[in-house]
Task: structure prediction
Amino acid sequence: MKTVAQFAIGYEQLLDAGGRPTGELPAFAQDAGELTRMYRMMVLCRMFDAKAINLQRTGQLGTYAPCTGQEATHVGVGAAMRPEDVLFPVYREYGTQLWRGVTLTEILTYWAGDETGTNFAGPRQDFPWCVPIGSQAPHAAGAAMAFRIRGEPRCAVAYIGEGGTSQGAFYEAVNLAGARRLPTVFVIVNNGWAISVPASAQTGAETFAQKGIAGGVPGMQVDGNDVIGVRAVMEAALARARAGEGPTVIEALTYRLSDHTTADDASRYRPADELAAAWQREPLPRLRAYLAAQGHWDDTREQQLRAACAAEIDAAVKGYQSRPRPAVGAMFEHLFAHPPAALAEQREQATRYPPPAH
Amino acid sequence: MARVTLVESINLALNRALADDPDVVLIGEDIGVNGGVFRATQGLQQRYGEWRVQDTPLAEGLIAGMSIGMAAQGLRVVAEIQFMGFMYPALDQIANHMARLRNRTRGRLTCPVVIRMPHGGGIHAPEHHSESLEVLFCHHAGLRVVCPSTPAAAYGLLLAAIRDPDPVIFLEPTRLYRMARQEVLDNGNALPLDRAQILREGDDVTLVTWGAMTHESLQAAQQLAQRKISCEVIDLTSLSPIDHDCILDSVAHTGRLVIVHEAARNAGLGAEIAATVAERALYDLLAPVERVTGYDTVMPYFGLEKAYIPGVDRIVDAVLRTLET
Result:
């Protein structure tokens, strides 16, 4: 039998777990200001996560999906995108969203049970959080189709978890993007666990990156805890998409150091030694070590950064806590541009039966 | 003015929408060179090109899902689902995202999408080609559901649906696609959404129906007229929202109501109509409400479809029962 097609999956890591470059770093990494901005965002996400979990534990927030451990992937992707690109997130990629202009207050407002938080003042075209797993992937392919039809040099970026790649919607979106060479990047965040099911149980494939191959879409892996590596492969994939060369699947290998959500207890299913080992590879210390080795970081600057982040988070918490409760009519208000008459009657009824104050 | 069939009037409306608005894009399976399995998109790809009238990969969930991303970018997407029985994978995207995007982003992102689907049986088709699943859409907030029964209504309502800023499920009765011709003026005029239409005025009994069942209902009304029984026939046309005022006005006049639909009886739209009349016009009624519907069985393969779809005799008998009291 002759071979008619062959494929390979590459792996990229530019900064190892100790923060040492594995080779020459890309241009953006020569800019200390840019790297410290990325570091700052990763620290902000880590501290925000802790705060949000605290707010949930004290009854001030609903179920919250933490991002701890995945900050490098999220910030690397966000920093590579252009403002005019469009993001299709899952529900924990705050680093990307914050980079693109979503605010901490909006994130808290959403998880506090109010859809108003998805009405982003910054990235007006970015999609909101997507709870039904994998269902956002076709939206990204559709947006990319719109860019293609209009000849706009923009890209759609879809996140998906490694568990989400088991959904048909993911394959359907990758297949369309491959068939029409749409400017899309699918970022598979392989954080090891889909709630309680390990990545090894989702697929018999050696990598999740290769799930693009059957759709005619090149796939690659990157160390998802290496923010420089993530940004570099993401920039390359976006450049490729913008040049009309089609989509890319990127599998970012990271680890969910947190529970799935605040309603989850990962100790029920996750080996403690695996978690301990993952903390040794986590993303923040390695970028900090690199910055320190270059003379761009020290304890004083770290303390200043943490104080600034704490103040920013406190201000955001005050912001969402001082927001008015949604009015009863809000559930009727945005169903239609031109609401059917019958809805007015139900709205009037709902207004007469407001919910208890607490 | 041309005399056209219902499917030809859909083609006219699609052509008009594509010509008038560069943001209108058609997607679906076999809608390009082939012009759709019912030929609703015949000739359009040749005229507007492969990107504005495009064949998608064979995946209904994708068709609905990609429509959302396209529409949120400002395109006006008209998607075709080849047969209603194939729409279930698309329902996930329609219910979870298309119907909700405006609401969950507080109006920031919207979905001006029309999903066209053939509706109903009676054309000797294979299994899964003859379903009447309108209630699955009517139950979801954020969607309009429209089902025209004449070429002129199909033309005007499809244009209205395409121009509407929100998602519209547009059901096309397959049995009527080529049953009759009607003068349709291709003038780009849309008809109002959300309205029922009175197909025949009458005094004794109100018949409420939609889609292909308008045909049997009008035949029944004609037969009954020979027996001096006068039926008012309402084509619901807008299945969500329902034009209850039109029905209530008619029932106030006739005092009798028969609801006719091809879909299964259990939790069918007839129940919603009957309940609303019970709530708001019980004392107008001179007789119990009757429902003439498909049975609570699987839509049978075509060998028995004529036994499933309500016939004229079943409708006539139901009307006569309302006159016994």
Summary: The interface with chain B takes residues 86, 88, 115-116, 118-120, 124-125, 127-128, 132, 135, 137-149, 156, 168-169, 172-173, 175-176, 179, 331, 333-338, 340-343 of chain A (CB under 8 Å). The radius of gyration of chain A is 21 Å. Strands of chain A lie at 10-12, 86-88, 156-161, 184-190, 193-194, 197-198, 219-223, 248-253.
